[in-house]
Amino acid sequence: MIYCLGPMGSYSEKAAKLFAEHLKNSEEIIYCNSINEIFEKLEKLENSKCEDNRLVYGVVPSENSIEGSVTLTQDLLMETNVNILAEIDINIEHALVSTSTNKNTIKRVLSHPQALAQCRNYINSNHWVTETMESTALSAKTIAEKQDKELSAICSEANAEIYDLNILDKNIQDYKNNQTRFLLISKKQNKEYIKDINFGIDDLKKVKSTVILELKENRAGSLYDVLGEFKKLNIDLSRIESRPSKTKLGTYVFYMDFEYYENMDELFDKLDKWVSKLVYLGTYFVL
Length: 287
Ligand SMILES: O=C(O)C(=O)C[C@]1(C(=O)O)C=C[C@@H](O)C=C1
Prior knowledge:
Blueprint: E1 2-5, H1 11-20, E2 29-32, H2 35-44, E3 57-64, E4 68-69, H3 71-79, E5 82-91, E6 94-98, E7 108-111, H4 113-118, H5 120-126, E8 129-132, H6 136-146, E9 151-156, H7 158-162, E10 166-170, E11 179-187, H8 191-196, E12 207-215, H9 222-232, E13 237-244, E14 252-259, H10 264-272, E15 275-286
The protein binds prephenic acid (PRE).
The site of prephenic acid has 15 residues, from helix 1, strand 3, helix 4 and helix 6.
GO molecular function, one term: prephenate dehydratase activity
Pfam family, one: PDT
Pathway: Amino-acid biosynthesis; L-phenylalanine biosynthesis; phenylpyruvate from prephenate: step 1/1
């Protein structure tokens, strides 16, 4: 069973379906109203399973090629007891949909904040007012219910058919190469997930790990010392990103993604000297 941001037609649903192809027993998708709700549902589980004994997963957007990190997801990855099991990049092509057949009647455009930001220039050039919604698909569903010709939504083309709307424009994101990375997550633990997943991948280049670190001290070279441990072990970093620690202005935690390394205990031992906190989000497949 997979929790993802709904309703039907969201990009998260598309990612969930692609992940589901690799899961043996968990294809059923349950739509949630927000990203928070997905993390909450996983956190509340007692033993990672639903009543009929199937494992429970979540799918969340983590990063976009135009807008950068989905900061809510990044924060909840640190605050919630979850693991990353896999990641996948999805091409995002937004359409403008409406109950109207004429673009000239549109005055307001509804969508998820990430989608509105990805189409900022397009929206500004049409002088429309924006309204944020919890998902792109919810914005399509909402305008279909309201039947107001001044309203439009930004979402995938598939929503036009699902909610009986007209496509007024296609491919409207400001940069044509628009991709969002999604993560398959579970409650933290456990060996059983490995049995349920069949990624069919032997290539270790397609395996990655993520940690979140807080430095022990703020002094010249303290981040350099951490990076030095990765260099000494010849581990290739693919992302380093800072987020506010939320304890004091100007203090940060660092999210680091890196290539497969067989001895994580050794790495963690070395890092221990320099970090006051280390959250290990998992070693996982890149699909
Ligand atoms: O609203 C959706 O359809 C989502 O799945 C969320 C989301 C996101 O949070 O980034 C996913 C992909 C797009 O980048 C826009 C919105």
